[in-house]
Amino acid sequence: MSISVFARHALTGYGREECGAELLLEGSWPVPKRRSGRWSLDDAIDARFARIDRIAMDLADRTGRTGEFTPHVSPARQAATFPYINALALRYHLVKLLRVVVFFRDVRPLEKGELVELHLSSPEHEAYADLFGQMAAAQDARLVVHRHEAPPTKRAHARRDLDWRRWASRLRTWQPPVGKSQHDPGAPRVVLCGSPRILNPVCAELVSRGARVAWLYDRFAVRCWWSWRSSGVEQLVCDTGRPSASSFNDVWAGGPLAVDGLDLARPVDRWLTQRATELGRSQLLLIDRVESHFRNIRPTALVLDEDATPLKRIAVALARSHGARSTVVQHGAPCGPFGFLPPAADEIAVWGDTTRQQLETWGHPAERIRLVGWPGLRRQLFGSAPAERAPTTQAKRFLLLATMPPRDERPDNVEFHLTSDSYAAMFDMVYRVLGQIDSATLTIKLHPRDARQAQSIPLPPGWRDDGRAKLRVRIVQSADLASLVAASDCVLSCASTAGIEAALAGAPVVQILPAGSGNVLPAEDWGLLGSARTAEELTELVTQALERGWRQVSHPPQRVLVAHGRTAAARIVDGLVDRPYRNEPASEPAGQPDSAVAECYS
After folding, report:
1. What is the DSSP string of 554-595?
2. Residues 159-186: pLDDT tens digits?
3. pLDDT under 50 in the chain at which residues?
4. Which residues, at least 6 apart from 446, have a Cβ–Cβ distance to it below 8 Å?
5. 327-368 pLDDT, tens per residue?
6. Order of strands, edge to edge, in the sheet holding 115-120?
7. CA-CA distances (angstroms) from residue 199 to 369, 570, 600?
8. CA neighbor of 434 nearest in space, from 512, 486, 371, 370
9. CA distance 454 to 77
10. Pure H helices in 209-254
């Protein structure tokens, strides 16, 4: 018996024809090449094995707590260990390793004496060699590792700022207007770090209460410069200066990471060492810049939109040394625990009881959750619901809110099971179902962070909007979500924050999920009509959506949203400053910050 294992599909040509069993570790086999005895982890490991997500988070957290920092640094920086800073990326790497462990334990166990031929082509794949070495020894199997030359890749050009950005970045030297920069020495000193789309309402509320507000950013935020400057908001920029000449000394102190009789310590240590070589100096620069900024500001509070990525985790660790309490403002739909757990910040401010219950189910401490509402909910969408209308015989207009396309080399959390194959299958399901509806049109809104734009959407031949296809399809990248939703008869959403916004506005929203996914965003809890993973389920839910139509929503469901706009922002600030927020008269419009700080994007 033998099995050929390939790190990626480009290596499958090196397999032996007489080898019956084959396994692909990253990505899926093309449909013409699928057969019995040919597996891929993307297909075989789905929500049935969702425990992998929990194990990955626990191991990453344990690794971060046993890390060691470089010597001769201030005590304030000792908490910002390299594994702690890179916890989110480490969770995804552990998912890759744990998928292998589970496959050979629960799906296709190794047999005694079996030959395993492992094909690798990248230094990143050496972690697989470490892992298969242990598995082969444990099962008394034979392992042969074939290392092939990596395919040529385009060399990434160093990022060069556009001329307008280089010119505009000089604006950072301009000081706030006279009077705005003179803060009460006793005023709260609050640092914000995250997307202006989420945190600007909080910024406006802090400014209105006389707090000294500073915005921690990785690079100068040109588009927000004027609105922040005119309100006396400082920018703390982290991309100035040269990367450190030193590097992380001991990126990890080591220690066993046992799973099912295997120790993942060596592949984890190898990954951390490689990542430290690539990113260590730039992350040390981040630490130096944040530490310098906080030494000058001496923050009393820190507000973030998440606490999982490097800059945010550095900010949390260093703010704590100043006695500053850190608060995360919920940044999106909680469709997976990776971006929420384990928490680094002291507390999270959530939209409503639905989020609170989900976080507690995942194990988030209840005393570290505050119900405040959704400060960044855009009023123009919330108030965009047309009057209730009866179904008509006119063309049915569908809006599909696309999610971020997956990457083969970095599997998503197992419970979501969003792979290249399941992603394409979701679109195919939508096209087949909507293609059966007379005069149907489909608008696909790309995810705002989708850099590949329209090329990321899998449109089968014949379905493009060429005037001949039965289903007319167009792809847009418009930021005007309100107009797109209001012009639709039915919204399709894949575990999307925008889908929740649309449902709160009164639109009938059907959730589409990858085949093999778990109940990652329970439809009944979020005001959605239901979740579809098959064409039959989607057909039934689309029919219900068209029959129901829009419903005017005067007040959002309390379970999902306890408040929005300025009221929500004020509740967040109540936990940061002494002067509490007093409810405004009902006649005052909610959701609009009473400040010169405008919503902006950088």
Report:
1. SS--TTT-S-BHHHHHHHHHHTTSSS---PPPTTSPTT--SS
2. 555 555 555 555 555 545 434 445 677 8
3. 67-72, 75, 155-158, 175, 177-181, 465-467, 579-602
4. 402, 453, 454, 456, 457, 475, 476, 477
5. 999 999 998 898 898 899 999 999 999 999 999 999 999 999
6. 38-40, 21-26, 2-8, 115-120, 142-147
7. 18, 12, 10
8. 512
9. 43
10. 225-230
Please, how many CA atoms are within 13 Å of residue 334, restricted to the half-sphere of its CB? 26
Q: What is the pLDDT of residue 123?
A: 84
CA distance 587 to 590: 9
Token pair 């609050």: residue = 190
| Distance (Å, whole) CA 568 – CA 201 | 9
Residue 469 near residue 462, CB atoms below 8 Å:
yes
Per-residue model confidence (pLDDT) at position 78: 59
Position of tokens 């797109």? 484
> Can you spell out the DSSP letters for 423-445?
HHHHHHHHHHHHTTSTT-EEEEE
Report d(CA 505, CA 166) in Å as an integer: 40
CA distance 339 to 494: 17
Contact in structure between 503 and 462 (CB atoms under 8 Å): no
Q: Where are the beta strands (DSSP E) in 441-501?
A: 441-445, 472-476, 490-493
Instruction: Please give the Cα distance from 46 to 235 (Å, whole number).
Output: 44
Q: Which residue has the tokens 């450190």?
A: 244
In whole angstroms, what is the distance from residue 592 CA to residue 564 CA? 10
Side chain identity at 198, as an amino acid letter?
I
| Distance from C-alpha of 524 to C-alpha of 362, rounded to nearest angstrom | 18
pTM value surpassing 0.90: no
